[in-house]
Amino acid sequence: MRLLHFLLVTLVAAEDGLDGWLRYAPLDLGHKHVSFPTSIVALNSSKDSPVYTAGLELQKGFKGILSQNLKISHDGRPTSSAIIVGTVAEYSKTSNKPLNAPKLKEDGFWLSTHGNTVTILGQNERGALYGAFEYLSRLAQGDLSPATYATSPDAPIRWVNHWDNLNGTGTHGSVERGYGGDSIFYKDNVIYQDLSRVTDYARLLASIRINGVVINNVNADPAFLTDKYLEGVARIASHFRPYGVKVGLSLNFASPQLIGGLNTFDPLDPSVVEWWRTTTNKVYKYVPDMAGYLVKANSEGQPGPLTYNRTLLDGANMFAKAAKPHGGIVMFRAFVYDSVNLKESDWKADRANAAVDHFKQFDGQFDDNVVVQIKYGPIDFQVREPASPLFANIPKTNVAIELQVTQEYLGQQCHLVYLPPLWNTILDFDLRVDNKKTLVRDVLSGERFKRNLGGYVAVSNVGVNSTWLGSHLAMSNLYAYGRMAWEPTVDVKATLDDWTRLTFGLDKSVINTINKMSMQSWPAYEQYTGNLGIQTLTDILYAHYGPNPPSQDDNPWGQWTRADADSIGMDRTVWNGTGFAGQYPTEVARRYERIETTPDDLLLWFHHVPYTHRLHSGKTVIQHFYDEHYKGAETAHSFLAMWKSLKGKIDKQRYEEVLFRLVYQAGHSIVWRDAINNFYHNKSGIADKSKRVGNHPWRIEAESMTLKGYAPIAVNPFFTASGFKGIVTTSNAPGTATTKVNFPSGTYDLAVGYYDIIRGKANWKVYINDKLLGAWDGDNEDKLGHWPSEFLDGHSATRITFDGVKIKKGDTIKIVGTPNGPELAPVDYIVLLPKGIID
Ligand code: GCU
């Protein structure tokens, strides 16, 4: 009976990703005889209390995992053979058993599980809910061992931020830098009436112990502060409340003028101060337990106090005073820099200096409910950055780190990139303040500088896609973020395994394979994109996605590489450069000041060197670039075989969806590899020692084929096309490109490099000797979710592969491209890959 039920559930369960890691899949107990609790006692009967939620969640978990229906009571005396969940205080009232739990910090919990007797006690209600999720996580992972332990969070602030817009006019879709579909909160300027997705999300967040969520974009719409929207904000808060997640709002600094009818937003003007006070009182009427505010001021065009020659301190403390009576906190972002007047011609100019320049002077003067929210690196969520020196420079100020779960510069969820190892390079970094151990994580916990408030924030940007982030595998980042915010020393590999067991089941080969792929993914992404601390080489003026290294330079955004014909990198030394290295405490500053002591992976972050400069590894910079790009693309290809080995061990829907992305990633890793290598090869004129760059013996360039209704086109940027050219149809009629194969007869993987742009769905067909091999549409914009492109470039460049195609010398390959709208069925090349060749 159990087996039948197991099979049925497995077959019918829609594995679309919506439940994330909270699937509560049936557990196969085999022949084990285990006694489980038979009822639930939840020590609170109020429906929006987290303890009440914990009761329901336990019930749901037991039903899914063990097919048992447990009754919940709220007032009954705790009995044996029950799960008791509640706060320590409540438990002490009802139980006559003394409790030997250690002291818990806010949100902490104590869990004791011994067969049919389970006690889950939280320091507060939220902690009790976390304990319930913890117990269910153990069960779902098949861990039935008895245990008694307590755990408390490392830091009180464990938030996510959402860059959601009301009106959907964000840079792309309604979530700025969101790749999992539109907002779960808003559509067409209206807050959803049906907020069931918010409840689902709250559940996921609570299970990873996130206690705050800011629900609107930092580039903030002031309308959120009007009654019209506050009503909806209150509804959103009521969906998060039962899960212990408090809601916060991003503020627009100019609100008093934009919606308040004042002619100023000067933070020292009494009418402005009064406006924020009364507005905040109103906000708290709607949401009495609001977490607080998030403020992006004087950054990237956002208004702020500098407009009135006031200071950032004036701005932050103005909000702090308004929020204080309500217990609210103000997350004030340190992401303040000048993106208009910065000049690359000035060797000493440096955006990286901005945060310390702006904030250090105010250390010790921020109100105690202000937390300065600092991006992990000095620039902007790059694949490799040093830890922001601001963490070392404001010891008398509360601080939180800002991470990105959404992969803005890191493949936009179309590339598998497991981020926790990257985050650890920052959290584990020792800043050596006063020559003493100063790990970033100990600054965040408050431990190092004895602060009470601080912690973690991640820009999560989930969307309405059933996978939340647009990709099943990307969810490991959200899961691990929560776990790390609670306990930053957690083992990121073990955490990943927990996630995999909960998400895909207990099969060891599944767990090991996903672990292997994920742990290799960030290093691989760094290898095939930007190395040695050069920062992102994505197109920063457009999609932040595909390769475009020249977009970094000659503009005021300050993400410069300073690449010229001979040399590359930012000189951030004190003796000859921007002085940034000197913002670190002495020991660290000294290390970064000298090339000899700077680690290779940050070399170009701190130094400007010739391409022929030898790294500690002994390689030249340029050869390192070439080699790494080849290695990284190879690794991305190896993910395919790894994933395919799991066929049949993962439900079809998720298997296929992940496979689609991995195939895409492998193809796009070649786009990256070739673009970057071609660009620097062209710039430096230095050949690749292994003669791979610019040399593709198995490719047939589309422009060299016999064309009918197709014509060659020079692609811009040139390095995003093989041979720098592609072909497009000359009218809205189909075009054909034909070639005779001159390679030895054999079995090849046949790949077609092409471009898939937005606002058109061209169709391609490929024939071998007039026999159709395959056909596909240009519909990646519907399937992938990355920022799409209107042009033939590094964002739209993609490829499709047909495995194991038998080809004879002299065969004819024909591509028929049918254009659609602006998508003129563009093709870059065909490649016939003998076994083992990746190109
Ligand atoms: C990045 C990102 C923007 C965002 C900004 C911020 O620059 O591209 O979309 O608004 O960071 O963090 O404020």
TrEMBL record:
What does the entry give for GO biological process?
xylan catabolic process
Q: Which residues form the Glycosyl hydrolase family 67 catalytic domain?
A: 146-468
CDD domains xrefs? CBM6-CBM35-CBM36_like
Q: Name one Pfam family in it.
A: Glyco_hydro_67C
EC number of the protein = 3.2.1.139
Its keywords, alphabetically, are: Carbohydrate metabolism, Glycosidase, Hydrolase, Polysaccharide degradation, Xylan degradation
The GO cellular component terms are: extracellular region
**Molecular function in Gene Ontology:** alpha-glucuronidase activity
Question: What domain of life?
Answer: Eukaryota
Which reaction is catalysed here? an alpha-D-glucuronoside + H2O = D-glucuronate + an alcohol
Tell me where in or outside the cell this protein is found: Secreted
Per the record, the major location class is: secreted
SUPFAM superfamilies to which the protein is assigned, alphabetical? (Trans)glycosidases, beta-N-acetylhexosaminidase-like domain
Catalytic positions are E300 (proton donor), D380 (proton acceptor), E408 (proton acceptor)
Glycosyl hydrolase family 67 C-terminal domain segment(s):
470-692
- Taking every annotated instance into account, which residue ranges of this chain make up the domain Alpha glucuronidase N-terminal? 20-135
* Similarity comment: Belongs to the glycosyl hydrolase 67 family.
Under the heading PANTHER family, the entry gives: ALPHA-GLUCURONIDASE A
Purpose of the protein: Alpha-glucuronidase involved in the hydrolysis of xylan, a major structural heterogeneous polysaccharide found in plant biomass representing the second most abundant polysaccharide in the biosphere, after cellulose. Releases 4-O-methylglucuronic acid from xylan.
| UniProt name for this protein | Alpha-glucuronidase
